[in-house]
């Protein structure tokens, strides 16, 4: 009997979201991706569920081929966040991805639909730049795998959908300064600057404090 993949939804802080345009820097076929950060205590039930799925997958591989028991190991599908000094922050990171395109086993090419993105009320969202620390829910499918090269059994997460609960707008270049009393550029120049940095960054999710079912 063919195994049924498990679907899961987690909630946390978004990091490095690429859900509208795939990233092609490291994979020419493109990857949609997002990292979700959850505090350790809140992540514990999720980690326990994932550990159970991983252990069952490991046991099934060994049962099918007992000779593998001595060489196989398990690779956990999450890891602790560390700061720039290498110290753990107390958050657990879940990395969730989806290939944008690729080649099937029969040699035919395919293009995958991008993940669904919704606001807190489940309205469709288009082309909003999801900044780091935005609060999101992410729906994904758990896919077990056996990596022959490393002899590791692991779980990958295929990205299905993102719900933006609280949007932190992405700002190119970041905010390096606080407001100060002093020189203010002419209105036309200021307006031009606002248009350049802020256009298309608004979202219907911004004013929605209540989240809908996902």
Explain what the structure shows.
This protein has helices spanning 40-64, 187-198, and strands at residues 6-23, 31-39, 73-75, 79-82, 88-99, 101-103, 109-111, 116-118, 135-147, 152-166. It is α+β, with helices and mostly antiparallel strands and 214 residues long. It has one domain: Beta Barrel (OB fold (Dihydrolipoamide Acetyltransferase, E2P)), CATH 2.40.50.140. Strands 1, 2, 3, 4, 5, 8, 9 and 10 form an eight-stranded mixed beta sheet that branches. Strands 6-7 form a two-stranded antiparallel ribbon. The longest helix is centred in the first third of the chain and has 25 residues, at 40-64. It starts with 5 loop residues before the first strand and ends in a 16-residue tail after the last helix.
Cα separation of the termini: 30 Å
Shape: globular
Structurally, the number of domains stands at: 1
User: What pattern of helices and strands is seen along the backbone?
Assistant: EEHEEEEEEEEH
Structural class call reads alpha+beta
Mind describing the biggest β-sheet? 8 strands, mixed
Mean pLDDT, rounded to whole units? 85
- For the record, the CATH architecture stands as Beta Barrel
What value does the Rg take, in angstroms? 21 Å
Task: Report the helical percentage.
Answer: 10-25%
CATH homologous superfamily? Nucleic acid-binding proteins
Unreliable segments of 5+ consecutive residues: 187-213
Provide the CATH top-level class.
Answer: Mainly Beta
């Amino acid at each position: 009997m063919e195994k049924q993949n498990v679907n899961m939804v987690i909630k946390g802080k978004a990091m490095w979201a690429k859900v509208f345009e795939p990233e092609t820097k490291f994979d020419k076929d493109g990857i949609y991706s997002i990292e979700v950060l959850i505090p350790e205590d809140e992540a514990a039930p999720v980690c326990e569920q994932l550990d159970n799925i991983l252990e069952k997958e490991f046991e099934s591989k060994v049962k099918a081929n007992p000779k593998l028991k001595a060489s196989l190991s398990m690779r956990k599908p999450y890891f602790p966040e560390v700061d720039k000094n290498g110290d753990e922050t107390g958050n657990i990171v879940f990395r969730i991805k989806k290939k944008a395109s690729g080649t099937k086993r029969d040699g035919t090419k395919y293009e995958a639909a991008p993940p669904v993105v919704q606001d807190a009320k489940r309205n469709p969202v288009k082309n909003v730049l999801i900044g780091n620390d935005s609060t999101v829910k992410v729906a994904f499918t758990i896919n077990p795998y056996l990596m022959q090269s490393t002899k590791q059994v692991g779980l990958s997460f295929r990205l299905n959908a993102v719900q933006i609960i609280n949007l932190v707008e992405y700002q190119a270049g970041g905010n390096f300064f606080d407001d100060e009393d002093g020189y203010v550029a002419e209105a036309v120049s200021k307006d031009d600057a606002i248009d350049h940095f802020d256009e298309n960054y608004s979202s219907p999710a911004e004013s929605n404090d209540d989240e809908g079912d996902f």
